Amino acid sequence: MMPLDLLKTSGPALASLFQSMSINEEDFDGLIFGQYEDSQTSVVTDDAADEMSIQRVARIASFVSFTSVCSFYDAAGRIDGEKLASLVVGRSQTVLGWFICRRDLWATPSIRDRAVCEALPSCLDRLQPQRKERPMLYGIMSATADRARATHSFQQKFYQVQSTASCSQPNKVDLGDPSTGLSPIQLTISNLGAARQTRSYEALTPVASLPPVHLQLPGRPENGELQKPKDPIMQHGKLERIADFSQQQLGSMETVCNAFLAQVASITSQLVEKAAMVSNLQKAV
Asked: Which domain of life is it from (predicted)?
């Protein structure tokens, strides 16, 4: 089995997983969906003939989260074939592996996680033959938050699993060995736009088509029967209410203006009287 060279995902896919971790207060697990890609590169050297270099890449398209842990396995790590089949059969994308999210704990694989990692590859190979001879992915995430839940911290680690254990007999593997079947692999994030101040970002390669857009013309419903066009947005009754309200506002403004003019007239008369008094005083002097 050829190991993986690169593991890639998109920023929105990883952000959706972090959002699920931030709103879920309990531990939960899920499946990783995506696709495998093999690329061949010709290596030319002066001392030897041309050599072909094969690079195997796993692209994560989505993380499907469940409500709690043990969604397709029991407390001992034994796979429930019926539950797993109900989650996998009918999916158009390939199951790359599984993940588990824990709160307030270090992102470290447990003994049960290792048991699932040893038994799950053979079960997935039977449900999806196209993924045979492909390493399985295992992701472990940890989330912590402050008391006000205003700040969240996330930790994520990914491993590739190469196992030959049977789906029904996972306990044959020495689960106490920390190095059993788990090899760490770095996750590369692909985002839209040019790379800035980092080398781990590259151009995004879409893995899903755009959803269909259904347009319906006015007056032409799907059943083929013609209907009258809908009433205008500004209906007659609504226009009358707006006119009445505007008239009331104008009446209020007219009252204010009349009061202001009365005050101006009063001030003017007072100024005339004071001017007359000043004129009389000047004549008396």
From this structure: Eukaryota
CA–CA distances in Å: residue 123 to residues 74, 83, 101, 133 = 15, 11, 22, 13
The tens digit of pLDDT for each residue in 20-43 reads 888 888 899 999 999 998 888 777
| Cα–Cα distances in angstroms (integers) from residue 69 to residues 100, 121, 133, 134, 247, in the given order | 7, 18, 27, 25, 66
Domain edges within the chain:
6-43+51-190, 237-285
According to the model, what pLDDT value does residue 112 have? 94
Q: Is the pLDDT of residue 175 over 50?
A: no
Tokens 């590369």 belong to residue: 188
Residues 6 or more apart whose Cβ sits within 8 Å of residue 95: 31, 32, 33, 88, 124, 127, 128, 131
Most confident of 80-94, 211-225, 271-285: 80-94
- For 168, the token pair is 């029904």
**Residue in this structure with the two tokens 């704990």, named with its chain if needed:** 105
Burial bucket for residue 85 (CB in 10 Å: 0-12, 13-18, 19+): middle
> Exposed, middle or buried, 281 (CB in 10 Å: 0-12/13-18/19+)?
exposed
Q: Which residue's structure tokens are 């989505």?
A: 62
Give the whole-angstrom CA distance, residue 194 versus residue 17: 24
Distance CA 78, CA 167 (A): 8
Instruction: State how far the Cα of 52 lies from the Cα of 233, in Å rounded to an integer.
Output: 67
CATH assignment, 6-43+51-190: 3.40.140.10
